[in-house]
Amino acid sequence: MVTGEEMRQIDRYAIEEIGLKEELLMENAGQAFVNEITSLLDKKTAKIAVLIGAGNNGGDGFVISRSLLEKGYHVDVWLIPPLEKVKGAARYHMDVYLKSGFGLISYHTIANEGFMQQLTNYSHVIDALLGTGFKGTLRSPYKEIIEQVNKSNCSVFTVDLPSGITADGTDVETLMAIKASHTISFQCPKLSSFIYPPREFYGNLSIVDIGIPKLAVIKVSSKRHLWTEEDVTRTLPVRRPSSHKGSHGKGLIIAGSKSMTGAPILTTRACHRLGAGLVTLATPCSAHPAIASQLIEATFHLCPSKNGEIDDLNISNDVLEKRYDAIAIGPGLGRNNNGFFIEALIKGYHKPLIIDADGLYYLKYFLPGLLVRKQVTILTPHLGEFAYLTNESIKMIEKNRFQLSKEFAEKYGVYLVLKGPYTIVTTPEGHQFINTTGNSSLAKGGTGDVLTGMVLALIMQQKDVQMAISNATFLHGRAADYLTENGWNSLSVVASDLVNVLPQVLDQLQNS
Ligand SMILES: NC(=O)C1=CN([C@@H]2O[C@H](COP(=O)(O)OP(=O)(O)OC[C@H]3O[C@@H](n4cnc5c(N)ncnc54)[C@H](O)[C@@H]3O)[C@@H](O)[C@H]2O)[C@H](O)CC1
Ligand SMILES: [K+]
User: Fold this and answer.
1) Within this chain, do residues 213 and 155 fall inside the same structural domain, yes or no?
2) Domain boundary at 222, 239, 260, which?
3) Which residue in 38, 51, 352, 395 has a CA-CA distance of 20 to 30 Å to 455?
4) Of 222, 254, 271, which residue is a domain's last?
5) Do residues 62 and 97 make contact, with C-beta atoms less than 8 angstroms apart?
């Protein structure tokens, strides 16, 4: 996962330090693009317009056009800028294209509105207008061309990233960009392909290798990575036959209130489902009867309640440390008391602590306590909770999810799980791991409570905290995908469905 600048540095390193010629990389890019799309194009019926800009994205377009024409596809090349504006590697490939005996249409030979008419002759458009070199606001005639392509009935394949989208996805205000059905991106996914709303313009995304040596990527040391199924199957804890319930962790969940009894049930069930050995639920005595009838595997620690919510934990930190390997606090806690027991835990419980939901509401007043806390602390806010914690607007967070979560995690020395499509797990050192599972069925109450229970279960069974969190996040999203792929309508998935299909999801992974 790279920014535009990091991609440029990777390119430069491959070309200048390793000595791969840019023209070669461009040839590889064009050929890889064609290999990826031929299965989607019917050679007999497809009529393809390749729209070519002035930079190297356009250069790719010349390689793509030459390759498709050599394969017998019906292709028209539309060169948008005047010929003399095409430079460098793009110029090299334009010359190769022309000397291979193929022609081009210069956009400037037709009036602007004529182009709209022309588009009706094509079934497909290949967008090689702008790539990672795009910045600022779209200049003419690209703006008009993009509007017309989006209005046409053509199916659009876009080269590297949709024209009008920046690689970093920061300026999401005035989004005028190519709406692609497929994006074939080179070597590394760009940040904007995992940020909404830019992501919506990519359509189906495939990443193709264009022969850039891994050393070039490592040298630029981008600290953002996808957390893939391969990472999960490689790192998920495997049960040892000799294990016993004590070896899979004893967790405490502090959650629930008289008016919110479902959240602690979801969190506790999810924690059991993902293999925790022993789970105790600390909940106000006023909520206990309603919850206890639903949870047979859990034990309880009853807390004095005020306003139907936990008023005090009524247990000392050193007893907590002796009894529990980790604590998760927050689901359904309520916000009507002072939450001082959370501050006491931050200061005095020297083992891993997960703070979620209403726990984050109180945390806002105890943030300085995080600056001195040395032990593992995991925060799992959604966009709204993170906006509240940081006093930023949700829009601001959405535009700068990577940067803002990195700054927060590094400042407070916490693992930050910024939930949403493409949940980002950030470590205290600022490494970021992006989740790629899940769907809109997760956007409803209770799903966050389930994730909290899953994170608690795995951090007690895996040494590496980031891997445990990323695995929990992956499985959580994969449960939602499992449901929608097996007949559940995404509207009707409820949080407890996620918990119920975890065995199948684990089974699918371990047998994949
Ligand atoms: N390793 C790789 O990823 C490779 C990538 N390749 C392709 O190269 C482009 C990046 O090429 P670059 O020349 O840097 O820029 P672009 O082609 O994206 O665009 C520059 C071009 O666009 C004009 N421009 C910039 N901003 C605007 C604007 N707001 N409005 C209008 N026009 C604008 C600018 O003037 C330039 O003329 C990358 O995406 C890949 O597709 C290599 O081909 C192979 C290796
Ligand atoms: K493009």
Assistant:
1) yes
2) 222
3) 395
4) 222
5) yes
Q: Is 193 exposed, middle or buried (0-12, 13-18, 19+ CB in 10 A)?
A: buried
Q: Mark the residues whose beta carbon lies below 5 A from ion ligand 2.
A: 127, 158-159, 163
Whether ligand 1 lies within 6 angstroms of the CB of 165 is answered as no
What is the Cβ-side half-sphere exposure of residue 438, based on CA atoms within 13 angstroms? 28
212 Cβ below 6 A of ligand 1: yes
Tell me the CATH number at 250: 3.40.1190.20
Ligand index nearest the alpha carbon of residue 86: 1
117-131, 212-226, 307-321, 331-345: lowest mean pLDDT where? Answer: 212-226
Q: How far apart are CA 141 and CA 114, in angstroms?
A: 13
Residues 243, 204, single domain; the answer is: no
- pLDDT tens, position by position, 142-186: 999 999 999 999 999 999 999 999 999 876 556 799 999 999 999
Q: Note whether 299 and 211 are same-domain residues.
A: no
Would you call 210 helix, strand, or coil by DSSP? Answer: coil
188 lines ligand 1 (CB under 6 A): no
C-alpha to C-alpha distance for 464 and 448, rounded to whole angstroms: 22
> Residue 183: what pLDDT?
98
Which of 134, 139, 173, 208 maximizes ligand 1 atoms within 8 Å of its Cβ, making it the mutation to test the pocket?
134
Ligand lying closest to the C-alpha of residue 220: 1
Its domain, for residue 480, covers 231-510
Q: What is the CATH number of the domain that holds 174?
A: 3.40.50.10260
Q: What pTM, to 2 d.p., does this model score?
A: 0.87
Residues 163 and 253 in one domain: no
* Residue 216 shares a structural domain with residue 364: no
Give yes or no: residues 237 and 352 share one domain: yes
Domain count of the fold of the chain: 2
395 CA to centre of ligand 1 in angstroms: 28
172 CA → ligand 2 middle, Å: 17
60 CB less than 6 Å from ligand 1? yes
Q: Which two tokens stand for residue 480?
A: 């939602």
pLDDT digits (tens, 9 = 90+) for 237-266: 876 666 677 778 999 999 999 999 999 999
Q: What is the pLDDT of residues 448-485, one digit of tens each?
A: 999 999 999 999 999 999 999 999 999 999 999 999 99
